[in-house]
Amino acid sequence: MKNNKLKPTQAAQHRRGAAAECEQENRLQSLNSEDVIYWTEVVKAVAAVIPTIAKPKRTCSYHAWSSLLNEYCGNPPSVGIAPDYPTNMSSRLMSFAEDVAKPGWPEPISDLIEFALAFLEADVMLFRSGYTKRHLVKRLQQSPLSPDHIIRIDRLLRRAVTNGTGLEEFRGYRRLAAHLVVSGALPDLPTWLAEKAHCAIRTVDRAEGELFADLMSDTAMSDADRDRVTKSTFFGRFKWGMSFSDLLVAVPAGKLTDEDASRTKDNAYLMLRSIQQRQFSERKTRGC
């Protein structure tokens, strides 16, 4: 008689498969077109009002967004029973956005792309929004984008450089920029970044490990300059760095790395560096 009893590994695979099917069905329901369009319009409506409010003293203040959202509308986004988990609009928006930010978008993807772009363009500032933005950027990188989408993403990338953004979010933008440039969608972006990054100063504590290792091993850099850039003060501050215009020569860093203009240069350099690394990787893969 044949034994139909599943082995433990097979049973675990069946449970994972069933859970995945259940999760996909739940996402089809939660990310239905009506809800996606509703939350997209909510984000756009609040984003239009945000600029009229006085800027908070703290950079990461959630008050403006949360108060406007909670005053915007008290109705649930769809007809039926309101969900039990979050009770206010700001919590419900973040729960929805976090669901959208997960991989595996159901159709219609165009609605989800629009929501992701609206959320990023509005620069929603709520609890956990930074990580959500990073994952939304990743979802855009994995999606089929129209020429209009590319134009809007180009504006987002340039805004991230000039205005700055959260660390995790900016890493996502750097990867997205590299992906789009390598695919030929943003041919002008590297030139713009190089102009913005001109004379960007990289100190040891602000240089990527790979870049720093290359510079320290390069025989073209003098021993005196190598000593300058690696020497820090008692408080751990580096007074010397390397300029993007000539990375093999030490230059005084001073207080430049704390100024807004220098942050823009730094952001531009980091994004350009990501693009160059991706281009090098692609050429290496093709054997060029």
Protein architecture, described:
The structure is a single chain. By secondary structure, the chain is mainly alpha-helical. Among the domains are: 104 residues, no CATH class; 74 residues, no CATH class. It contains 12 helices and 3 strands. The protein has a 3-stranded antiparallel beta sheet. Strand 2 and strand 3 form a beta hairpin.
Q: Nutshell version of this structure?
A:
With 288 residues, the chain is mainly alpha-helical.
Please supply descriptive tags for the structure shown above.
single chain, 288 residues, mainly alpha, three-stranded antiparallel sheet, 12 helices, 5% strand, globular
Enumerate the strands of the largest sheet in spatial order, edge to edge or round the barrel: 1-2-3
Q: What count of helical segments does DSSP give?
A: 12
Shape: globular
Please give the share of residues in helix: 55-70%
Main beta sheet: 3 strands, antiparallel
β-sheet strand percentage: under 5%
- What value does the Rg take, in angstroms? 24 Å
> H/E series, N to C?
HHHHHHHHHEHHEEH
SS elements, strand count: 3
Question: Which structural class fits the helix and strand makeup?
Answer: mainly alpha
In terms of quaternary structure, the protein is single chain
